[in-house]
Amino acid sequence: MMMKMPWRRKSRSFHLQLQGAIGTIQSPFLFLFTNYCHSSISTLEDARFLTNNFKSAAFTRLDDAIASFNNVIHMNPLPSRVHFNRFLSALVKMKQYHTVLSMSKTIELVGISYDVCSLNILINCFCRLHLVDFGFSVFGKMFKFGLEPTTVTFTTLINGLCMESKIDKAVEFFDDMVARGYQPNVYTYNVMVNGMCKFGKTNVAIGLLKGMADRGCEADVVTYSAIIDALCKDELVGEALELFSQMRNKGISPDVITYTGLIHGVCKLGQKNQALALMNEMVEKNILPNVYTFSVLINALCKDGMVSEAQNTFNVMIQRGVEPNVVTYTSLIDGLCISGQFKEALALLKEMVGRNISPNVFTFNILIDTLCKKGLVSNAENIIKIMIQRGVEPDVVTYNSLMDGYCLCKQIDKARKVFDLMVTNEIADIISYSILINGYCKCKMIDDAKDIFVEMSHKGLVPNAVTYSTLIKGMFQAGRPQTAQELFKNMCSHGQQPNIVTFSIMINGLCRQGNLNEALTLLKEMEESQLKPDLVTYCILINVQL
């Protein structure tokens, strides 16, 4: 079924429509070109320079472009439409979309007719400004002017729809393009493939790749890179590697985006050696890894405990002139904190600030969590003060770490104050409740822990395995085995699957109460649930029998 296109609706004259669009986007460049004062050009030589600057589109500053435009708009005869199009295209490359729309209005007022190229430029500007509906209005006027749209026109509008997340409309418009007899080119397909991959429709993107070959359109590195990246994000690394081989067999050289996508994918699967091999292959092919490539690898190495390798990779990055960003530093700081190298992490933070790279909420949270786990809560409080002074807003993770630190130091009243603040601001989550329950249990305030558990349910939050395990353990330690068993049954009846920790807590509690038969029955249930008892579970049973 042919889609109903927005250009078929009634509209005002094109001049008024364009004027309305420019008004809508509130352009700061609505120049009164017709009132331009020629006295600003002091010499004939200046005028020639500005004219040449206009015709060659050889400018890098907006002020120079405006001066050139102001000069030529009063020439007699005026430059051709081709020269105006080249000039406007240069401004588009500078992302001066508002200015292009304003100048287009002026060009129309001095009597220069639109052609397909100039209307394509307008459509592109509207799409870049996330005003694709205005783009379709211009598209409709093409037919009114007796002009024939090109593949560029369709591709630009498809891209505009994708940019506004109107992916279904983009597909319909693509089909309409083909139905009208227009042949999509590699750029059209790349826009479609990127759109599909961005919205998780990787299978559709692969279908488009196959369709390209059927239509005699050769895919390029952009097409393959988009799909490889999407497959890796979907953790379908095997398929991504197959596509990578297919790409190379076709003689298409991978670029930095292709390699980075693959490195990200193999890192997610824990295949660090393959990631390092891909990085080395990049370097051998003189493809310079970018900051994202390095950051992905550094993050993966840190999470795998390979902090020395991550530091080496970081040093290589600096040596190759690639500037680290906040993600790179945060990943490495996290790795250093996890490996117990807190002084080195602080030194890296100092270096980061020295490079004018501002730590973000994730960077601060890593440091705060590390300090709290070390019991250095007062230091964590100071970091939070610095965080706020730098304009970084603490989030639920920040407050959860602080609460956990207070609970670890048995400062339960301070933990409760933070918790109440979080509840008031409606940011408390399951982890917040679980932390406070654990704190109350450790302080032997079991009734308070139970009250928080009940309050949690009233707030519509579903307790998870950690919450249940914490409270069950607290009940056993408080000498309330019956309540612990009731909680366990309640957990199972509410569809919450006990994990190995929950089972171990239950088996340990039952054994300490002398209920060995019940403990063995639970062990059997554990095995039937496909959870393998670990060393801790078996040690509990061995100690009882000894």
Fraction in beta strands = under 5%
- Put simply, the count of helices is 30
Give me the strand/helix succession: HHHHHHHHHHHHHHHHHHHHHHHHHHHHHH
User: What is the averaged pLDDT score?
Assistant: 86
Structural class: mainly alpha
N-to-C terminal Cα separation, in Å? 77 Å
- Assign a percent range to the helix content: over 70%
Sum up the overall morphology in one term.
elongated
Biggest sheet details: none
Q: Segments where pLDDT lies below 50 for 5+ residues?
A: 1-12, 24-42
Strands, total number: 0
The value of Rg in angstroms is: 32 Å
Map the helices and strands.
Elements: H1 14-24, H2 44-56, H3 62-72, H4 81-93, H5 97-109, H6 116-128, H7 132-144, H8 151-163, H9 167-179, H10 186-198, H11 202-214, H12 221-233, H13 237-249, H14 256-268, H15 272-284, H16 291-303, H17 307-319, H18 326-338, H19 342-354, H20 361-373, H21 377-389, H22 396-408, H23 412-424, H24 430-442, H25 446-458, H26 465-477, H27 481-493, H28 500-512, H29 516-528, H30 535-545
Helix pairs in contact: 1-5, 1-7, 2-3, 4-5, 4-6, 5-6, 6-7, 6-8, 7-8, 8-9, 8-10, 10-11, 10-12, 11-12, 12-13, 12-14, 13-14, 14-15, 14-16, 15-16, 16-17, 16-18, 17-18, 18-19, 18-20, 20-21, 20-22, 21-22, 22-23, 22-24, 23-24, 24-25, 24-26, 25-26, 26-27, 26-28, 27-28, 28-29, 28-30
Structural descriptors:
mainly alpha; 70% helix; 546 residues
